[in-house]
TrEMBL record:
<keyword id="KW-0663">Pyridoxal phosphate</keyword>
<keyword id="KW-0808">Transferase</keyword>
<protein>
    <submittedName>
        <fullName>PLP-dependent aminotransferase family protein</fullName>
    </submittedName>
</protein>
<dbReference type="InterPro" id="IPR015421">
    <property type="entry name" value="PyrdxlP-dep_Trfase_major"/>
</dbReference>
<dbReference type="InterPro" id="IPR004839">
    <property type="entry name" value="Aminotransferase_I/II_large"/>
</dbReference>
<dbReference type="GO" id="GO:0008483">
    <property type="term" value="F:transaminase activity"/>
</dbReference>
<feature type="domain" description="Aminotransferase class I/classII large">
    <location>
        <begin position="64"/>
        <end position="395"/>
    </location>
</feature>
<dbReference type="InterPro" id="IPR015422">
    <property type="entry name" value="PyrdxlP-dep_Trfase_small"/>
</dbReference>
<dbReference type="Pfam" id="PF00155">
    <property type="entry name" value="Aminotran_1_2"/>
</dbReference>
<keyword id="KW-0032">Aminotransferase</keyword>
<dbReference type="InterPro" id="IPR015424">
    <property type="entry name" value="PyrdxlP-dep_Trfase"/>
</dbReference>
<dbReference type="InterPro" id="IPR050859">
    <property type="entry name" value="Class-I_PLP-dep_aminotransf"/>
</dbReference>
Length: 402
């Protein structure tokens, strides 16, 4: 191809998502898939959306719904988000909120806003693959964020300087992370704020799964803890990224960012340059559905996903041989399995697809340093309990036969 030598250096770090490539292979009949981290489409509030779209397309609203709109986002939706954020302890106003096209877009903008080539982004090992994809384009260096590990700030700083840049942010999903399902406790969140203060860097709090808690006690968002400490969101370094993808529907591509006003103002400029604004009609429809159905819909989702999580945990304990470990998530969609040392997740997947027709995601892709070969990610969101039990039984068989 004559043009590939003309691509910018950043293109060399963009590669096809292994997960997306994998998902393409799974459209075969008979496969039990624990691979995709997606909501169960049977749980979409489809009727509520049909009604909402009919409403926003009626003669009173259609001109607005089909027109360009402001980059900051649809005002009533931002108002709803301000109220929702207040409920989880984040005191902010409308100018602290930007509507994005999914929270994925916020991650891209934050990479673009903070990272010069060679700067350091602190991430978990493993971390959300989409965050790596978003940040990679801005040519950062990654360092492992170790909360509570007593690694001094000066150590992170020295390594960043040696690489020719600064630590710009720490990125994490504090609730039911993708891929591990794990939650950072309050102490960890406080320690992270301390570390970010010492490093003088931002915190990107990815809250994509935050509403999906099934048991245990909710931990306040990092942004809420930071506001409590510093008195106002304007003093805070945390940027909170929310999403309707896991609660209402991902296809509409509506998410949001909440941060100090100067950060939001800068993100608005990025949005003006990138796509002007998120889809007006989708924002209007999601506002109606959120206002009228969010509070009744979320408990229904939680009940179904909780049963599926329980079924998977139960099946793992019955069918996995000794030496296999897994996380016990209090919410979200994922269980993270660590296989015996030396067992390879990718090889296991190949065998599993071949003989048992069970799919999952090998864990190595989630590690910026290429480690984690003996890990796999299981998603319980899209299968009913008997299917989960059968799939884990077959998986146990494959692991046992090595
Ligand atoms: N963050 C995490 C941790 C995710 O798992 C996802 C979706 N897989 C996203 C962000 C992006 O979601 P969306 O853009 O649909 O809001």
């Amino acid at each position: 191809m004559p043009l590939d030598r003309k691509f910018a250096t950043r293109a060399s770090r963009m590669k096809a998502s292994e997960i997306r490539e994998l998902l393409k292979l799974l459209d075969q009949p008979g496969i039990i898939s624990f691979a995709g981290g997606i909501p169960d489409p049977a749980l979409f509030p489809a009727e509520a959306f049909a009604e909402a779209f009919a409403n926003v397309l009626d003669p009173a609203h259609q001109a607005q719904a089909l027109q360009y709109s402001v980059s900051e986002g649809y005002h009533p939706l931002r108002r709803w988000i301000v109220a929702e954020m207040a409920r989880i302890g984040v005191d902010c106003d409308i100018d602290n909120v930007l509507i994005t096209s999914g929270s994925q877009q916020a991650l891209d903008y934050l990479g673009k806003l903070f990272l010069s080539p060679g700067d350091t982004a602190l991430i978990g090992w493993p971390t959300y693959l989409g965050a790596l994809a978003a940040f990679n384009a801005y040519e950062p260096r990654y360092d492992q964020l170790s909360i509570n590990a007593n690694r001094p700030a000066s150590d992170y700083q020295a390594a960043a300087q040696q690489a020719g840049g600064q630590v710009k942010f720490a990125y994490l999903s504090a609730d039911f992370a993708n891929p591990t399902g794990e939650t950072v406790d309050r102490r960890g969140r406080e320690a992270l704020i301390d570390l970010a203060d010492e490093l003088d860097c931002a915190v990107i709090e990815d809250a994509a799964y935050q509403s999906l808690r099934y048991d245990g006690e909710a931990v306040p968002p990092i942004l809420a803890l930071e506001i409590a400490r510093k008195g106002s969101i304007e003093e805070c370094r945390t940027v909170y990224c929310g999403s309707f993808s896991k609660t209402l529907a991902p296809g509409l591509r509506v998410g949001w960012a909440v941060a100090a006003k100067p950060v939001i103002a800068q993100m608005v400029l990025l949005k003006q340059a990138a796509d002007l604004h998120s889809s007006t009609i989708n924002q209007m429809a999601i506002t109606r559905v959120a206002e009228e159905h969010f509070d009744t819909h979320i408990p229904k989702l939680r009940a179904v996903y909780q049963r599926r999580r329980d079924a998977m945990l139960d099946a793992l304990s019955r069918h996995m041989p000794n030496g296999v470990q897994w996380t016990k998530p209090e919410g979200g969609m994922f269980i993270w399995v660590t296989l015996p040392a030396g067992m390879d997740g990718a090889a296991l997947l190949a065998r599993s697809l071949d003989t048992e027709k069970v799919a999952f995601v090998p864990g190595q892709a989630f590690f910026a340093d290429g480690s984690g070969a003996n890990t796999i990610r299981l998603s319980f969101s899209c299968s009913d309990e008997p299917t989960i039990n059968e799939g884990i039984r077959r998986l146990g068989e494959i692991v046992r036969t090595g």
